[in-house]
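Query structure, 180 tokens:
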């Protein structure tokens, strides 16, 4: 069976700081038409950073869509000048949010966050050989962050308590658990 939907029209609805929104008219494999609302995103990175003391680095912050504080791995969106280098974004975010640099940054896997309505792709990196940065990059003006370092049992408990609740961070903790 051919599953491909043919796009017959694109209506651009919104340009935002983080996302854009399109409404597409598509022709389905059976010939009928349907509408698709698609969130467009430049992409992002997440960094699995394990300290020499065998603790994972998390960033504590408020998340307005959830109405709560979360613990997440250092992460951020790929800037337009970094489109061809998610590794550059990972290095920058590790500095900006966690104030670490890594001897090695290895791509674990890229993945799509919500392919039913968004094209956001996150590149998940594993950072090893961490050391404090010598030059701190400025943090985003609209972010209020706190670095938190947890052991694996503490991270698993934070997942059970709902503090760790986003997909990239859950994947990071599961990756760490498999490494042990």
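Result returned for the query:
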């Amino acid at each position: 069976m051919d599953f491909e939907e043919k796009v017959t029209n694109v209506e651009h609805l919104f340009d935002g700081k983080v996302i854009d929104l399109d409404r597409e008219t598509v022709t389905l494999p059976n010939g009928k038409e349907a509408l698709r609302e698609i969130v467009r995103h430049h992409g992002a990175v997440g960094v699995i950073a394990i300290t020499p003391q065998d603790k994972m680095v998390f960033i504590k912050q408020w998340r307005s869509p959830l109405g709560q504080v979360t613990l997440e791995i250092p992460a951020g969106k790929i800037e337009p000048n970094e489109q061809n280098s998610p590794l550059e974004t990972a290095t920058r975010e590790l500095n900006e949010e966690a104030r670490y640099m890594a001897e090695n940054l290895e791509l674990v896997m890229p993945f799509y966050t919500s392919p039913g309505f968004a094209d956001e792709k996150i590149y998940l990196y594993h950072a090893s050989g961490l050391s404090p940065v010598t030059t701190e990059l400025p943090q985003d003006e609209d972010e209020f962050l706190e670095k938190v370092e947890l052991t694996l049992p503490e991270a698993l408990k934070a997942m059970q308590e709902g503090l760790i609740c986003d997909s990239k961070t859950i994947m990071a903790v599961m990756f760490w658990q498999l490494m042990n």
